Amino acid sequence: MTSDHHAQPNDENRRKFFRDSSLMLASALPTTRIRVKTSTLRVGLLGCGTSGTKLLGSAFKIAAEGGRTPHIQLVALADLCGSRLQQTARSLKGSCPSAYAVGPSTRFVGHQAGEQLLRSQLDVVVIALPVELRTKAVEQAVRYGKHAYVEHCLANSGFALQRFQRAEHTATAQNVLLHVGSRTQPAQRWAACLDAIQQGILGAIREIQHECQIPLAFPRSSLDAEALAGERALAGCPNGLEVLEARSTVLEIADALWRQTPRLAIARSHVHYAAGALESRIDYEFGPDERLLSHCRVAPQIRNRLDRIQVVGERGSCDLQRGKLFDLSGRLITSAGHQRVDRGLGLNQFLTKVSWLLNSAPAGRVSQVTSGESEIASKPASPAFRVSLALIMGELAGYSGETQNQGSALHSRLPII
After folding, report:
1. Stretch 102-115: mean pLDDT
2. Are 377 and 345 in contact (CB under 8 A)?
3. Do residues 370 and 403 share a domain?
4. Which domain does 13 fall in, by range?
5. Alpha carbons 238 and 61: distance in angstroms, whole number
6. Is the separation of the CB atoms in 41 and 125 below 8 Å?
7. What's the rounded Cα separation, in Å, for the pair 169 and 178?
8. Closest CA to 143 of 114, 117, 174
9. Across-strand partners of 108?
10. Does 102 share its domain with 229?
11. Closest CA to 64 of 26, 96, 89
């Protein structure tokens, strides 16, 4: 009895020792799965215009719905204009109060706002600046070791595009994710059609026909028309950015089907302005029998916007806008339709990748982050590089009236976009 009575405290102490030791060991073990679910990604927005505000608002809405999405918080804002920053802050705080965590000390305004934001404590920077400022912002983000997300187009000249490519290589070497999203996300919107085409339902793809007609945003005087005649960039012209976006969309489709940069860009008509109207015809040659014909027109007499993208193959054609595929006789083969894709999906899924990299990736290497999943709407910068180069080639051809190749476009310093 006495020996049993004395053994009880020893057993209790031994059990307490093993329990405490187990807790200490458990706390020392890696807990990447738990961290993925509970960690918070700190996001900063560089550029507080309408584009960046809508993009983040959409991504926050998707994040609030749960699923595999990591918990994200907006912790910093930066813009050249203070009033624009305040407007973005009010909008995002009102629509997503749980994700808004920007304090007075992390609101940066002025010419040094971008660098001040990148010096702050954040994991991801969303770059929503005008195209002429994106290259420098990406270079700074990589230098400060921030994962960066940016949308098309990457640069406004071939020289700036080369700088962007060097920044991408540096990002990979420094374990920094640099991804490019699309405003229209054609690969997702017309996923069913493109999948059927890639599986060979139309045979080899020979031609993509693109027609875009846009109503003039506002009437222009003859004096304005004369001033526009000297413009060298579509961005400075009425509805010019809409034209660039439309052409970028069809170039993304061409890249999804052919996976290469066009060899040549040929202007079938000069970009010209008359009474505020704009017309541009560009042919892109991807191979001996593969070409993209793009015709964009802006005019006061156009009442409704028209976007038409026709993919022509050996055995038929596809009207992407209608989501229908036809044989050579014009008979309907199948109706694949199209789906509406939330613009914030690309950013949201990029944040999921960043979370996995920071918490679960083997050795935290960027090379371990897969990018081939069909549901990923954002993509590494390399495919976007091809699309941006093709866009620059076409605009150079349109303004010069001369055929442009990859080399001439890459070495051009003319800010054409």
Report:
1. 94
2. yes
3. no
4. 2-30
5. 32
6. no
7. 10
8. 174
9. 78
10. no
11. 96
Number of domains in the chain: 3
Count of beta carbons in the 10 Å neighbourhood of residue 23:
10
In this structure, the answer to whether residues 211 and 148 fall within a common structural domain is no
319 belongs to a structural domain:
no
Residue 32 reports pLDDT greater than 50: no
Q: Residue 129 and residue 131: Cα distance in Å, rounded?
A: 6
Q: Based on the domain organization, do 227 and 144 belong to the same domain?
A: no
Q: How many angstroms separate the CA atoms of 162 and 385, rounded?
A: 9
Side chain identity at residue 301, one-letter code: Q
Can you tell me which residue has the tokens 């442009």?
A: 404
Q: Is pLDDT larger for residue 101 or for residue 68?
A: 101
Please compute Rg for the chain using Cα positions. 26
Given a contact cutoff of 8 angstroms between Cβ atoms, the answer to whether 225 and 272 are in contact is: no
> Does this model's pTM top 0.90?
no
The answer to whether residues 292 and 387 touch, using CB atoms and an 8 Å cutoff, is no
With tokens 């089907």, the residue in question is 257
Is 210 found in the same domain as 162? Answer: no
Is the separation of the CB atoms in 380 and 371 below 8 Å? yes
User: Using 50, 70 and 90 to split pLDDT, how confident is the model at 369?
Assistant: low
3-state secondary structure 338-387: CCCCCCHHHHHHHHHHHHHHHHCCHHHCHHHCCCCCCCCCCEEHHHHHHH
Task: Please write the tens of the pLDDT for every residue from 328-353.
Answer: 999 999 988 888 777 888 888 888 88
Distant-in-sequence, close-in-space partners of 75: CB < 8 Å, separation ≥ 6: 42, 43, 44, 101, 102, 106, 120, 121, 122
For the segment 139-198, what is each residue's pLDDT rounded down to a tens digit? Answer: 999 999 999 999 888 888 999 999 999 999 999 888 899 998 887 788 888 889 999 999
pLDDT one-digit tens code per residue, 42-64: 999 999 988 899 999 988 888 77
Is 262 within 8 Å of 294 (Cβ atoms)? no
How do 178-181 and 147-151 pair as beta strands? Answer: parallel
Query: How far, in Å, CA of 74 to CA of 60, rounded?
Result: 9
Domain containing 38 — which CATH number? 3.40.50.720
Instruction: Output the pLDDT for position 376.
Output: 38
Exposed, middle or buried, 192 (CB in 10 Å: 0-12/13-18/19+)? Answer: middle
Place of tokens 């420098």: 136
